[in-house]
Amino acid sequence: MNSKHQYVELNDGHFIPRLGFGTYKLQEVPNSKTTEATEIAIEAGYHHIDCAYVYQVEEEVGLAIRRKIIDGTVKREDIFYTSKLWSTFHRPELVQSCLERSLRKLHFDYVDLYLIHLPISMKAMEKCKDAGLAKSIGVSNFNRRQLEMILNKPGLRYKPVCNQVECHVYHNQRKLLDFCKSKDIVLVAFGALGTQREKRWVDPSSPVLLDDPVLGTLAKKHKRSPALIALRYQLQRGVVVLAQSLKESEIKENIQVFDFQLTDEDMIELDGLNRNFRYLLIKSMVNHPNYPFADEY
Ligand code: NAP
């Protein structure tokens, strides 16, 4: 993951690695699994680690990163670490304290990217960047209207560098991606592999993304797995992509996303799979005025 083409420049001059390691896991899985998997990921070459206050594994992820720093595999500055502000800390005076709690768990001085996990205002986030506690700030799960509200806010000092949203072949976010590109905001895809289906809020009758026959045919054609086709699709559209796994074989496989290329015809075929289907609906937020998924995009 060291060569420049594996990074995307953010609108504040920092660089984000194009493949990130996702650390959300089900609560019944022991937290030590996350330490183990994160260490495997760093050894395999992932430099971008996506986490959040609410995942409740920042201590374990921090431990894995520190171990890999101590054994000389990486330096702190090689790692791009993302954390996210949880919704119970939205009051401006609480924002920095949520980040500081994350930093204490991680034993870090700063995070590389701090995201608003679910839509709210940006002002208190700017202070975290000013204080040097977050190198970059961005948002997650924002729709176009919510992004525009932030971008048009009088006195905005830092544009969000990214918008992290659910994005995969069944919901390719074409319109939101075009909008983000026009505003120099990087789209970061989560759920690119069809998410962890055991999550309690994922409808068990939802389609299994990696069983899609088109992914299967392209996987055969390129002698890769459907997972790699799904990840590669995102990279070739200029999207930064996250991939979660606790299995060594999958963690090592997913980083092969840089080793092959899809053709223009393959990309058109994959575009054709879009059906605006979401795995993550955040039903508990449906009646909230900031619910992001009621708009078309
Ligand atoms: P995901 O990356 O779409 O999918 C993970 C699933 O894919 C795992 O259950 C894993 O299954 C399977 N998988 C991984 N590599 C594979 C391979 N090579 N072959 C076959 N199967 C493979 O899931 P996600 O966790 O929902 O999203 C990724 C990350 O995005 C999260 O961990 C988190 O960091 C972030 N996220 C952010 C938000 C937000 O609101 N901002 C929301 C959701 C997620 P097994 O390991 O069980 O085989």
List keywords for this structure.
297 residues, alpha/beta, TIM Barrel, eight-stranded parallel beta barrel, binds NADP nicotinamide-adenine-dinucleotide phosphate
Distance between the termini: 32 Å
CATH-scheme architecture: Alpha-Beta Barrel
Sheet-strand content, in percent, reads: 15-25%
The gyration radius over C-alpha positions equals: 18 Å
Count, helices = 10
Small ligands present:
NADP nicotinamide-adenine-dinucleotide phosphate
Specify the CATH class: Alpha Beta
The topology string of helices and strands comes to EEEHEHEHEHEHEHEHHEHH
Q: Give me the CATH fold name.
A: TIM Barrel
Any overview of this molecule?
With 297 residues, the protein is an alpha/beta fold. The protein has a single domain, classed as Alpha-Beta Barrel (TIM Barrel), CATH 3.20.20. The protein is 34% helix and 16% strand. The chain has an eight-stranded parallel barrel, surrounded by four helices. It has a two-stranded antiparallel ribbon with strand order 1-2. The longest helix is centred in the middle third of the chain and has 15 residues. The protein is globular. NADP nicotinamide-adenine-dinucleotide phosphate (NAP) binds next to strand 10 and helix 9.
